[in-house]
TrEMBL record:
<keyword id="KW-0963">Cytoplasm</keyword>
<dbReference type="InterPro" id="IPR043519">
    <property type="entry name" value="NT_sf"/>
</dbReference>
<keyword id="KW-0678">Repressor</keyword>
<keyword id="KW-0810">Translation regulation</keyword>
<dbReference type="Pfam" id="PF02410">
    <property type="entry name" value="RsfS"/>
</dbReference>
<comment type="similarity">
    <text>Belongs to the Iojap/RsfS family.</text>
</comment>
<dbReference type="InterPro" id="IPR004394">
    <property type="entry name" value="Iojap/RsfS/C7orf30"/>
</dbReference>
<comment type="function">
    <text>Functions as a ribosomal silencing factor. Interacts with ribosomal protein uL14 (rplN), blocking formation of intersubunit bridge B8. Prevents association of the 30S and 50S ribosomal subunits and the formation of functional ribosomes, thus repressing translation.</text>
</comment>
<comment type="subunit">
    <text>Interacts with ribosomal protein uL14 (rplN).</text>
</comment>
<protein>
    <recommendedName>
        <fullName>Ribosomal silencing factor RsfS</fullName>
    </recommendedName>
</protein>
Length: 127
């Protein structure tokens, strides 16, 4: 069983919002077959705490603007701004400082899970 349509809509919106704020290394991992508590992870990184916070704000705004509004049920790490986790139940968003992303390597931890393709619309429009 892979991520639900709702989870796919949410992760793609979150990924685009992150891309719009110049997030780096955006990856969407479908963890539905491995976890019962969520369907997918969005991983994104930024080189400084201010940009991490800007990306988090943009993601929250984008998901609340969906036809079926989504608000995080839990938010962690905002104070330090090095790794902010947004838990939407269906999806979990991790916005990490570049150093945390390299150190914790969530991409590697979940490497056996399929990814959900994402292409930044700014790159498509530029072609």
């Amino acid at each position: 069983m892979s991520a639900s349509e709702r989870a796919r809509e949410m992760v793609l919106s979150a990924a685009q919002a992150a891309a719009d704020k110049k997030a780096q290394d955006i990856v969407i991992i479908d963890v539905a077959d491995q976890m019962v508590i969520t369907d997918a992870f969005v991983l994104a990184s930024a080189p400084n705490e201010r940009q991490v916070q800007a990306i988090v704000d943009a993601i929250e705004e984008a998901l609340v603007d969906l036809p079926e509004k989504a608000k995080p049920v839990r938010r962690e790490g905002e104070r330090s701004g090095r790794w902010v986790l947004l838990d939407y139940v269906d999806i979990v968003v991790h916005v990490q400082h570049t150093e945390e992303r390299e150190f914790y390597a969530l991409d590697r931890l979940w490497k056996d899970c399929p990814t959900i393709p994402f292409v930044d619309r700014a790159l498509v429009e530029a072609e």
